[in-house]
Design a protein that fits this description.
The chain is mainly α. It is built from 10 helices and no strands. Helix 5 packs antiparallel against helix 9.
Length: about 280
């Protein structure tokens, strides 16, 4: 009796929805524009809410001390801490992903049924583990090669991760391993990649959504990284984005990409905790 291989399927899944009318590249650009506007708007609102809350707490602390609030204290409220930054990211990026999914790329009943069927296939999780391992090996190789060339980038979110690890380790694990992979895959793979996949241009979708994924994780000017360091981070993040999009297409379920992404983040957290390696 022949035992089926967990990686037996050789054909990728069908596109998530029928090809839309109009230019898929323009549609992709519109999705990116809408995501940018929503992300900036929600981030601004969250920042404003945090400022109001912080100002309120400064006033409360002054009242408890029996002092009149010092107006100068309100002008130096500081930056949001690790917990506030994670919550802002959850609301802003997660809200953007959910809004665009519901507005632009909502799954049909047939798609949800196909995804449930894919989840029950052993091959889905074989591919998931294979891609997660490949992403880890590829990222490690890129880091090693960069180090040989004297290029050692520092991820923009490293200080946030270190502070969150010291003060909110449980929430950091939940955020990095469960929440962030879910809303990032919903936005970058389901919405952005899915549009070009449905239009019959999956490889272009992988490249463009991978580029968007890389850019949002390392925006020039937001860190001390130079051009070479930024290029290396873009290569790593872009490769991850392409790999997760390929996995989504191969298995036919976004859950595979979410799990692979979560595994990658879990490995990164473990390396930071046990090896001190960002």
């Amino acid at each position: 009796m022949t035992v089926p291989s967990p990686l037996r399927p050789s054909r990728p899944a069908s596109p998530p929805v029928p090809a839309p009318t109009g230019s898929p590249v323009l549609g992709f650009g519109l999705d990116v524009l809408l995501a940018t506007v929503l992300l900036m708007g929600l981030s601004l609102l969250c920042g404003l809410f945090w400022g109001l809350w912080r100002g309120f707490m400064v006033g409360v602390e002054a009242a408890r001390a029996g002092q009149a609030p010092d107006v100068s204290a309100f002008s130096t409220l500081g930056q949001p801490g690790a917990l506030a930054q994670m919550l802002i990211a959850l609301v802003a990026t997660g809200g953007t992903a959910l809004a665009l999914y519901l507005w632009r790329r909502r799954a049909t009943p047939a798609e949800r049924a196909a995804s449930r069927h894919a989840v029950r296939r052993g091959s889905t999780w074989g591919w998931t583990l294979l891609v997660a391992a490949g992403v880890f090996v590829g990222s490690s190789l890129a880091g090693w090669l960069g180090k040989q060339l004297g290029v050692e980038p520092v991820p923009t979110n490293l200080s946030l991760m270190e502070e969150a690890l010291a003060r909110y380790p449980v929430f950091l694990v939940v955020f990095a391993v469960l929440l962030a992979p879910a809303y990032e895959e919903l936005l970058f793979r389901r919405v952005l990649f899915g549009r070009l996949w449905a239009a019959g241009r999956p490889w272009l979708g992988m490249l463009l959504s991978g580029a968007a994924f890389a850019f949002i994780h390392e925006i020039p000017g937001t860190s001390a990284n130079g051009p070479a360091e930024i290029a290396q981070l873009w290569l790593v993040y872009g490769g991850m984005g392409i790999a997760f999009a390929w996995l989504y297409r191969r298995t036919g379920t976004l859950w595979a990409a979410i799990v692979a992404h979560g595994l990658n983040n879990a490995i990164a957290l473990a390396a930071l905790v046990f090896l001190g390696v960002p």
